[in-house]
Amino acid sequence: MTKYEKPMVIANDELAEGVFAASGCYTVTATRHQEPQTGRVNVRFQVNAHHDASHTCDVQYLTLNFTKPVQFISTDAQGAELVSPLSKDSASNTIVLKLTYHNNRTDNIGIGDVTVFGDGDVDVSSASMTDVSN
Ligand SMILES: [Zn+2]
Fold it and tell me: How many angstroms is it from 6 CA to the middle of ligand 1?
């Protein structure tokens, strides 16, 4: 059994918008695919993560913090499972996904279709990824 620990997230205001320097071995960026809209809609995000470490890993937690509550809809990310909130019916400012990429020491992950439902101007306020030890 692996115990989930909430990752520490450090937002770096000096970097370009949507770029976050997370603790641990990943740098994660999250950018919205579409312009802000009015009303409640599906909003799709591009999430990129760069692994910079001397180890490999096979399981990750991706944490996305949003400016407004959203409901997770879908992603084709490898092995994706919704960890938090426990139900897709629940709206939350934080979504945690478990992923199963085999990451070599300096691999890049690109996820083009993280889709949530919420206000059309919602954005990601911070993003991070952490390894889960097997
Ligand atoms: Zn790592």
Answer: 16
